[in-house]
Amino acid sequence: MAFVLRPESPLVAWLEELDAQLARSPSFFQGRPVILDLAGIAPGEAGVAGLLGWLHDRGVRVIDTEGYDGVLPGAEQWGPSLSGGRNGGTYDVPDDPAPPPQPTGLPPEDAALIVDEPVRSGQSIIFPRGDVTVLGSVASGAEVLAGGSIHIYGTLRGRAVAGAMGNPRARIFCRRLEAELLAIDGLYRTADDIDAALRGRAVQAWLTGGTAHGSFAIAPLT
C-alpha cells in the first residue's frame, strides 16, 4: 500500500508545513512508499524542480507521480520498494471476543480527529497523533491512517491503517465491512484474506494480546 501526498500551491509553503510535520514525527514516512499527486501544481511553479530531491533527503520514498503534465526532474531515479509489511496470518476468533479496553483519563485535545463527511475515492486521511472517527463511509480507493484506533460509522470499502506509528493496541471498528485492506501496527489483511462471512457486517479488528507478536483478529460487533 502506498500513501498519497498531494502538494498544494504555493509549493514553498506546503513544503514548510510538511517539514514541520516531519519534525514532530520524524519516522512517519519511514519504510512507507509514497505516490505524489501533483494535479494541483503547475509545471513551472517555483520549487517543483527540486521537489523529489527534497523529499528524498528527508526519507520520503516516492515510487510514482500522477496528475502532472510536465517532466519532474529526478523521477527516473525512483523505483518501487514495497517490502516491510507482513501478513497477519490466521486466528480463530472465540464466540465471545474480549471487549475493547475502556479509555482511562482524558486524552490530549489533538489525540482524536473527527471527519464529519464521507471519505471519497482517492482521498487520504492521515492523522499520526491519535484516533480517527469517520462519521460517514470510506469509499473504495480511499484510505484512513491513524496513529491510534479507527472508528468508521458507515461502510469501509477502502483501506484502514491503525496503530501506524507503532501502537499494537489500536483497533479498527466499522459498521459495515467491505474493506480492501485492514492493517494494525504493520500486520495486515487484504480483501482476499478476510473471511467472506464477515463481509457486510459490523466488525472490530485487533491484534491478539495487544502486541505486535499477536495474530490479526476480526470479529463481529454484537
Summarize, please.
The protein has 222 residues and is mainly beta. It has two helices and 15 strands.
Description:
The protein has two domains: 3-77, ACT domain (Alpha-Beta Plaits); 86-220, Pectate Lyase C-like. With 222 residues, it is mainly β. Mean pLDDT is 78; it is low at 76-93 and 103-109. The relative contact order is 0.12. It is built from two helices and 15 strands. Residues 96-106 have a biased composition (Pro residues). Residues 114-208 form the Septum formation inhibitor MinC C-terminal domain. It comes from Acidisphaera rubrifaciens HS-AP3. Keywords: Cell cycle, Cell division, Septation.
Number of strands: 15
Main β-sheet: number of strands, strand sense, barrel status?
6 strands, mixed
Q: Give the SSE order as H and E letters.
A: EHEHEEEEEEEEEEEEE
What's the number of helices? 2
Helix content: under 10%
Q: Please state the second-level CATH architecture of the largest domain.
A: 3 Solenoid
Walk across the major sheet and give the strand order. Answer: 4-13-12-10-8-6
Secondary structure layout:
Blueprint: E1 3-5, H1 11-24, E2 33-37, H2 51-57, E3 61-66, E4 86-87, E5 112-115, E6 124-127, E7 131-134, E8 143-146, E9 150-156, E10 159-162, E11 172-177, E12 181-184, E13 187-190, E14 203-207, E15 216-220
Parallel strand pairs: 1-2, 2-3, 4-13, 5-7, 6-8, 7-9, 8-10, 9-11, 10-12
Antiparallel strand pairs: 11-14, 12-13, 14-15
